[in-house]
Amino acid sequence: xxxxxxxxxxxxxxxxxxxxxxxxxxxxxxxxxxxxxxxxxxxxxxxxxxxxxxxxxxxxxxxxxxxxxxxxxxxxxxxxxxxxxxxxxxxxxxxxxxxxxxxxxxxxxxxxxxxxxxxxxxxxxxxxxxxxxxxxxxxxxxx
Length: 143
Prior knowledge:
- 78% of the residues lie in helices and 0% in strands.
- It is mainly alpha-helical.
- It folds into two domains: 1-30; 32-132.
- α4 (84-105) runs antiparallel to α5.
């Protein structure tokens, strides 16, 4: 009797463990933490500029944005965006955010910062669209 109870308990634990792993794998396939992290910084930097021409947040967050882009470009990509195209977009974003931070540190004019910030935002959205339009996707992010 004890052997049967032990076997039953082991089978239940194994079944539960396997189903949790499948759920986690499915959830992981629908998540890209680096995208979310970069998005938070980009939103804090870009929206004050877009809404009221305020570049101070972008200037303050430029270094953090560059570091986050570097981390993102080095991270393993989710399967649905693990393509040469997306890798190229991330490499470009990494380079462009570093250049942006360097220009700000060197005292670039607001007009140049505005133009570069808008270009960075557009580059980020290209990556976001690749993510949302992946297999089964079709969402477009609007501002």
